[in-house]
Fold:
Amino acid sequence: MAQGCLKCLKLTMCAANFLCFMCGVAVLGFGVYMMVNFRMTALTPTMASFNSANMLLVSGIIIMCVSFLGFLGALKENRCLLLTFFLLLFFLMLVELTAACLLLVYEGEIARLVKEDLDLGLTKAKGKTGVNTTEEMSEWDLVQTQLDCCGVTNATDWGEKVPKSCCKSNCETQNPQYREKGCLVTLKNLFEENFLTTGISVIVLCIVEVLGMCFAMTLFCHISRSGLGYKL
Structure:
C-alpha cells in the first residue's frame, strides 16, 4: 500500500512539474519575442529593467529551474532535491505575497513614480531641440495607437509638434482632433480593469505552490519512512 502511494505521488509530481516546465518554456519564448519586437525601453527609461519582456524572461527561467528541480527530485526519489524544491516554492510564495501587499500599500507612490518616468520618456522622445527621435517615437507611436491615448496626460504634453499617432480624426486639416485621454490614465484604467483577474491569478498560483509543497513534503516523508532514496 505504501509503495503504491509512493509511486502515485512520484508520477503525479513528475507529470505536474513537466507541465510547469513546458509552461516556463512558453513564457521564456514569449519573453524573448517581446524583447526582440517590443522592447518599450523609451516609455519608462528609469524602469527599463522592469519592463514586461524582462519580467517574462525572469519568470520563465525561474519556472523552468524550479519545475525541473521538482521533476528530477521526484523521479530520482532524492530527498535533498525534494527539500530544496519545497523551500524554493515557499520562498517564491512569500515573495509573491509580499509584492502584492506592497503594491496595494504603496499604490499612490508607484503611480507617482510611473508618471515621472513617463514624463522623462516623453521628454527624451521629443528631443532636446524639439525634434522627435526615431527609436523613442516608434515606441510612443505604437503605445498611443494601440491604447488610444496621447501623451502622459493629454496632447499638450507634446507641445507644438504633436505626433500623428495622437490624431484621431481630421488629421490632414489644420484643426486635427487628438485623442483625449493621456496614456497614464489609460494604463491606470487598464490595470484597474484587470485587477480582479490579476488577484485571482495570484491566488491560483499560490494554491498551486501550496499543493506542490504538500506533494513534495509528503513524498519526502514516504521516502524517509521506507528507507528509499538518497540520504541527505
The radius of gyration is 24 Å. The first helix runs from residue 2 to 37. Helices lie at 2-37, 52-76, 79-105, 107-126, 134-147, 183-193, 195-226. Residues 2-108+209-226 form one domain.
